Every structure is written in C-alpha cells, then in structure tokens.
Amino acid sequence: MGMNRTDEFRADAVRIALTTGLTRKQVASDLGVGLSTLNKWVTAHRDTDVVPDKDLDLARENERLRRENRILKEERDILKKATAFFASQKP
Q1: 25 with 35: CB under 8 angstroms?
Q2: pTM for the structure as a whole
C-alpha cells in the first residue's frame, strides 16, 4: 500500500519535475515515489499555478540551451576527429 503524500509535497514534486531539467525518472527516484505516480501528479497539476509562468519559461529556455550545448559539443568532437584524421594523412 502506498504512502499518502500531502498536497504540498505533490506540488513541490511537480515544480521540481517541470523546472529543474532533471528527468522525471531521476526526480521520482530522488523523492522516493514511483515514476508513474509522478507522471500522474504532473498531468493533474499541469493546468494549476503550481509552477509560475516565469519559472516555466526559464525551464524551457534552460532545456533549449542544454540541447544546443549538447549539439555543439557533438559538432566539436566531430571536428576534432576530422582534424586528427587529416593531420595524420601524408601529403
């Protein structure tokens, strides 16, 4: 039988899941709740004021920047490999 969590705990869990950039699986594990439970809470609280619009905008921007950073790192690694390859070729 599962534990009953307070509404405040649920709201905080949703806020953390939506704004920190951590995966929901990671958040669920850290909070000691099941992933499906956390997903249900997020779905139930999506239209409430649990997370202010300002925080959601910042979370979206952070996610966009993380994605861009990952892509740039991949491109850099490809260029490093290409440089090493062409440097090793004999003229």
Answers
A1: yes
A2: 0.55
